[in-house]
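Structure tokens please, single chain.
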Amino acid sequence: MSKTTHAALAHIEVLIDAGGQIMPGAVQPIVGAAVAHDGKKTLVMLKRRSAEPVSILLERLNAAIETALRTGTRVDEINTPSSDVRYSYKWRFVNVASA
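Here you go.
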């Protein structure tokens, strides 16, 4: 970890330095999400709260990465067992022969 690392994002930096990745943004159908992956498995999936600044979402992601690594369990706010939401994806095929 570099000496100039902002302490609030230290776990994100460690994850990236170890070959992992984070992805804040849209994970359809979720518009505001933040996902952390260690290169082998997904560690964290967060859903952005109403009016939550991105800086706070990243701080929560950082804390959730630490929790996931410490406990060995996934932190998942998107696919909760109590959720009765079912997402269906509609595939749109493009006929390239007619294009």
